[in-house]
Amino acid sequence: MSAERVASKTASGVEEGIGKAGTTVKAGVVSSLKGINEIEAEIVSLVRNTVSNTLRATGSVAAEAVGVTKDVVIGTIQATEEVGTGLILSTKSVAKGVVMGVSDVGGDVVTVASQTVKGAVKGAAEVGADVAMVARRTVDGVIEATKEVGGNVEEVARVAVGGAIEAAGTIGNTAVRAVKDMLVGVVEGVKEIASTALPRQRTTFAASPKEKPAPKAETPKTKPKSVPSRSRRRG
Questions:
Q1: Which of 82, 140, 189, 191 has the greatest number of C-beta atoms within 10 Å?
Q2: Using CA atoms, how far apart are residues 169 and 74, in angstroms rounded to an integer?
Q3: Contacts of 226 (CB under 8 A, 6+ apart)
């Protein structure tokens, strides 16, 4: 092994040699990934506190929750427009923060989850982002939040997937197909719920020609036996 190569263990615990360049990149990637996790955690905390404090201030959670959710989603989209990127990265954290904030004040998590997904999908289309990926990240966020607050995960998954498809339907058939394809494999752990929310693929059968009745077998005509005349029997 060269002087620049050092021993490093992989995730499976197997020691592999790695060069200086590999070590440098590895350290940088680890730092960046930790940074991304910290950013996502900060966004969740920011949205959660903002939503819960706003709803507490209004004093009418049931009436204001949907409006505050729309406001937060619009604010997120405008922020990513200013920066020029980041919608896909931030969508999951924002969706998670919205659901947790509404849950903190006893709001209707199911309704808010549906509104959050719809708003994110429509907003993604308006700014030219990847609609399917945004739908996936948003659904992931609301489901993850519902698990953490002890909500009805199955119901939230059902309305979230349905909301994403409904919102994609206002964009076009291509968006609907992309969202369906993306969400079929993403709702892990609640696949039976997703299967009820996602339209099943129609199975078409080719029209089979009508079966013709089998031709009747022709029965050979038998000649009537000749009956000897009485005159001959007498003779």
A1: 140
A2: 20
A3: none
Q: Taking the CA of residue 91 as centre, how many other CA atoms within 13 Å lie in the half-sphere pointing to its CB?
A: 28
Report the C-alpha gap between 95 and 112 in whole angstroms.
9
Q: Alpha-carbon distance 54 to 234, whole Å?
A: 127
The amino acid at 146: T
| Angle (CA) 34 77 89, round 5° | 20
Inter-helix orientation angle 20-58/87-104, to 10°: 40
Helices (H), the chain: 20-58, 61-83, 87-104, 109-126, 131-149, 153-169, 173-184, 191-197, 230-234
pLDDT tens-digit map of 132-189: 999 999 999 999 999 999 999 989 998 999 999 999 999 999 999 999 888 876 555 5
User: Cα-Cα-Cα-Cα dihedral of 69, 71, 77, 82, to 10°?
Assistant: -150
